[in-house]
Amino acid sequence: MQISGRLSxxxxxxxxxxxxxxxxxxxxxxxxxxxxxxxxxxxxxISGLCLDVLRKKxxxxxxxxxxxxxxxxxxxxxxxxxxxxxRLEEVxxxxxxxxxALSSDERKMLSAVVTRETASAPCxxxxxxxxxxxxxxxxxxxxxxxxxxxxxxxERVFGDDAASIMAAFASRADVDLRLNTLKxxxxxxxxxxxxxxxxxxxxxKTAARIAAPNPSERAPSVTVIPAFNKGWVEVQDLGSQIAxxxxxxxxxxxxxxxxxxxxxxxxxxxALMENTGQLYAYDRDARRLxxxxxxxxxxxxxxLQVRSPAGDEGLDDLAGKMDVVFVxxxxxxxxxxxxxxxxKWRLTPQQLxxxxxEQDRVLREAxxxxxxxxxxxxxxxxxxxxxxEDRLGAFLKELGGFGATSxxxxxxxxxxxxxxxxxxLRSCVTPDGALRLxxxxxxxxxxxxxxxTKNS
Length: 456
Known about the structure:
N-utilizing Substance Protein B Homolog, Chain A; 2 domains; four-stranded antiparallel β-sheet; 22 helices; 13% strand
């Protein structure tokens, strides 16, 4: 496909997204089914542009003076992808595939932003953000690129730093990897990742990272390299890895992963346990557990029991017996907005309220499996207080018998934390001893991690 056709496709897909409010991947798939001539590189280019538009939707709209898909997509190509203004004019006007010649207003707005020639910083996108900040200055939700209705919740957690922290949630995410010590030494796995430009992530001893690629290119395909298929590495965000490490020293322990889903954190827990003790994985939705069977086999996990509601495999026999109950609770997913920017524009107040109710239920259910002296690890991929401190506060007030302990101490006890990682995590400690991870501090997804000890 020509660039003009790709640009038109991105605009069409974003118009469909606005109209139907379906996940972006659904809108992309529907477009691809109707346009089978588009190759893998075409789809990667189009998807990358759509994602960047949704990451910085408000900033782009502020630059253009309107938020129509055409305007903000053209703006993304100019300001974020560094397209020359003259070339963009040609691409837009190209017949029959382009979206149509630029209007005089569009030309004016596109030329108003600082140009490459006058930019003092090497990153053109950074110059664009500087320009946007200087327009008004913008409201917090515009500078931070999040829905306006979430302003009270976000300012509640981040205060005066809300705009700058949320700007980090509008950046592109790296490809994070976990080095599976059940199959290979970290050094061996890292050497195998050199061919896909993988490097150690200096936070955990078993974490690696592939830097975010150019937006118009696909990320290296980790799942096709021999090291992945041998089970040496898993794709897992650094924040998720830190959450699993908050289980602490668990070799030989009885551990329940209560909301296991596809099993990413289950496999991380198994590696921490070194195939000792007993690890149980459960999820109310049996369909979500399906990938775990093959993933556990590839990863060399031998101490896992999957308890599936589809097989009428309950958990009653585990009540009061678990050393650690790990709860990766259902949440809004606000912490994953770098990777899934479409979800922030689809989130509603009603969905947030519904998630809070689900979290209360999950906490009550999971608590009964913790033995006296055992730990309940609560984690969400959300930074919102409403989904974290508020839920734990209500739980402790209602149930009692649990007390908060230092999450950082437990990560340290896992043996995975590096000196650099300890310095970074100290800046993430909350007043109640939990950890709130944000990409401005760790280049990780947003996570909240709390550890409770059962005292009676």
